[in-house]
Design a protein that fits this description.
This protein has about 120 residues and is mostly beta strands. About 0% of the residues lie in helices and about 50% in strands.
Length: about 120
């Protein structure tokens, strides 16, 4: 199982960023993908999840209205787009495979997103 994420991003405040997570080594539609971030000096923060089978999403309340998860089953890739970026969104963003509501078993390598003017 591998989850390979896109590379580091630098954005200005107010911009948007889209991070990809390409899955391989398992049946893509049989597991949720969770998105989690970790800001400098902070713990892990769950952002939400997507069901690649049907695109159904669940977002943490903090991010509702600002984050969008999508999937492309032709390439086994999920995407997380975060808009209206602010400096507090500077973090490493991870995708993780989830076999159940409160578990993850494989992680992507992380994508550094830096928001700075």
């Amino acid at each position: 199982v591998q989850l390979v994420q896109s590379g580091a991003e630098l954005r200005n405040p107010g911009a948007s960023v889209k991070v990809s997570c390409k899955a391989s080594g398992y049946t893509f539609t049989e597991y949720y993908i969770d998105w989690v971030r970790q800001a400098p000096g902070q713990g892990l923060e769950w952002m939400g999840r997507i069901d690649p089978e049907d695109g159904h999403t669940k977002y943490a309340q903090k991010f509702q209205g600002r984050v969008t998860f999508t999937q492309d089953t032709s390439t086994n890739t999920v995407y997380a787009e975060l808009s209206s970026l602010r400096s507090e969104d500077t973090a490493v963003y991870y995708c993780a495979r989830s076999p159940g509501p409160t578990r993850v078993d494989y992680w992507g390598q992380g994508t550094q997103v830096t928001v700075s003017s």
